[in-house]
Design a protein that fits this description.
The two termini are 24 Å apart. The protein has one domain. The radius of gyration is 22 Å and the shape is globular. It contains 20 helices and no strands.
């Protein structure tokens, strides 16, 4: 740890930025994930037409909007990839600062920064034009600011910045809006117990809700539904009635769902009514098949906490699908096993002990549990763990620095001349 302390922070940031930029340059203008193609089309459409899409388009807007800014000079995916490399590097810096501020340990902050700069899946997803990198950045920024406010290190201004960042996270990925709505209610309990000021809570809640209300208002005006997103029904069905097909590939689940008479009838409905009908069908399946649903939750729990990517999954290789990004399956397994097992186990243990020692840090484990809960109900993959990984890094870094490793030599008692 003494050697780590002697390495300047800028060295780690330069290494992280170089790795992210190199990966982005290696991809160039290629699309490597099927879902990435949808974000790319939405961004190019926004840049070309200044519209979020035709009537019925309701997806969270912030990631396509960010990418569209890079398409004003023409359609070339390398530009938004390089922008995400900058965002991901800045996120690594924020993780280090959050670890230092929230744990009170300089060593923990430096180790968290180093791990965040070299963590391979932060590097990988910084090169993929989807919402993962931007969502993670807003979550880290908001949770860091909120933790500082809860600990009395920042006032209402810090709480307002936290609310704004977490509100922007909610219009980057809708699950963020639902998870943080619950966390704000828990935080209100802290205000009632006089552990946090109502003024700070009100500032945070107001700044959080404004971006979400703005997008919900747009969806209400265009589709008659005051909702962040209108894809929840189909996602619930993929995670319940069509989970077996979804485990093969999303396209297989979509094809199976489209063959069902109830889905054909739902297609005749307006978007808002269609989403309600599909959600109703998913919850009906859950009520009628409780044992099946419990087994499904077990499978999705394993998928969420996997140590390495599934080896039995048939990846479709096409012009829009190269998920390995040039790496073999065995290479991806080897890379994963270098980080995931110890990071998950030490991260969970460290986060639990850290939160027990300082109850002001409750948003971190609650966000982890909320994210896990969302994906037990819907669909689950390793990549959905990415937004909680910063707090696993913080927990693991704190446990290593403050519990598992001895203090620096100058802090040990001398035993000789």
């Amino acid at each position: 740890m003494d050697r780590l302390r002697r390495i300047p922070i800028w060295t780690w940031l330069a290494l992280g930025a170089a790795a992210r930029a190199a990966f982005a340059l290696s991809l160039g203008g290629r699309i490597i994930q099927i879902d990435e193609g949808a974000f790319d089309v939405a961004a190019w459409n926004l840049a070309a037409t200044h519209s979020f899409g035709p009537l019925g388009s309701s997806g969270a807007p912030l990631a396509p909007f960010l990418f569209s800014l890079c398409y004003t000079l023409g359609h070339y995916p390398l530009r938004p990839r390089l922008l995400q490399a900058v965002i991901s590097t800045a996120t690594a810096w924020m993780i280090g600062r959050a670890a230092r501020d929230l744990t009170g340990s300089e060593r923990t902050g430096r180790l968290a920064l180093a791990l965040s700069c070299v963590y391979p899946f932060f590097i990988y997803w910084s090169g993929v034009l989807m919402s993962e990198t931007l969502y993670t950045a807003f979550i880290v920024w908001g949770t860091w600011e909120l933790g500082r406010s809860l600990k009395g290190l920042a006032g209402a201004g810090g709480a307002a910045r936290a609310g704004l960042a977490l509100g922007l996270a909610g219009v980057t990925r809708p699950e963020g809006a639902y998870i943080w709505a619950v966390i704000w209610l828990v935080a209100a309990g802290g205000c009632a117990a006089r552990r946090w000021s109502w003024k700070a809570w009100a500032a945070a809640a107001l700044c959080w809700v404004l971006p979400i209300l703005g997008w919900c208002g747009r969806n209400y005006a265009t589709m008659g539904s005051f909702a962040v997103d209108l894809h929840g029904g189909s996602t619930l069905l993929h995670g319940t009635m069509f989970l077996d097909e979804n485990e093969i590939d999303t396209s297989v689940a979509v094809a199976a769902m489209e063959r069902e008479p109830f889905y054909q009838q739902a297609l005749r409905l307006p978007p808002a009514e269609r989403d309600k009908e599909l959600s109703r069908k998913a919850f009906e399946f859950m009520r009628e098949h409780p044992k099946t649903v419990l087994r499904q939750w077990g499978r999705k729990f394993v998928n969420f906490w996997r140590f390495y990517p599934r080896q039995d999954k048939a990846f479709i290789e096409s012009t829009l699908s190269h998920p390995g990004a040039g790496f073999s399956r065995s290479a991806l397994v080897a890379i994963s096993l270098c980080f995931e097992p110890w990071l998950i186990m030490l991260g969970i243990a460290g986060l639990a002990l850290l939160t027990w020692a300082d109850r002001h840090l409750f948003p971190m484990p609650l966000f982890l549990l909320g994210t896990l809960g969302i994906h037990l109900i819907t669909v689950s993959q390793m990549r959905y763990r990415l937004p909680v990984t910063p707090w696993l890094i913080v927990g693991a870094s704190w446990l290593i620095c403050e519990r598992l490793l001895p203090r620096a030599r100058e802090e040990r008692p001398r035993t000789g001349p």
